[in-house]
Specification:
single chain, alpha/beta, seven-stranded parallel sheet, 7 strands, 42% helix
Amino acid sequence: MKSIANKVVYITGGTKGIGRGIAKALLENNCNVAISGRNLEEAQKTARELGNELNIIGLQSDVRNYQDEENAVNTIVKTFGQLDVVIANAGVGIFASVEDLTLEEWQTMIDTNLTGVFHTLKASITQLKLNKGYFISIASLAGINFFASGSGYNASKFGVVGFTQAAMLDLRNADIKVTTILPGSVTSNFNNHIPSAEHVWKIQPEDMGELVVDILKMNPNVLPSKIEIRPLKTGK
């Protein structure tokens, strides 16, 4: 497996859950990491908890705003000199019957979960081309399996899968790798959940970090374009 030491990685939604777990794993493999969130103080606090000012920075960015993502990329390049890997992880989930789902709730999910991924890739594509980089989107098994009260979330995650897979075909000949990861149940703060001992059966954020590290270390000629990951067993 190849070394990923000194790679510069940007993770959106990196302050909690999956994003934080991925950042921790990458730092343990000697990467330089930038994490972003909508709240600057929270992003900077998480960065201090995970590493030091030499290997991780916390940034403010609302992925719904393209200019925020462009500013984040520019800051990363100014700080670390390059950008090699981008992980589009920011997301929200609001679950209700289509009859009860509000216009604002629908728009929030589409703008964050789908348009946000486009903004992140669009803002970083020049750097990824320059460095033969890697783009990873964190989708969901909800992007291939629909369920009741999931109309908005399903629509956004089905969109992420379709967008990222098409982008993979667009960019592979430019030596940019693109992978979509579709996790099942993950122990995280997603949707305001509080992780507890009852959730030990779920995928852990550290598992997602290990998976991302393994993907980045694969043979350069291999492209795992879409990966489903789920708990071995379901909760009781």
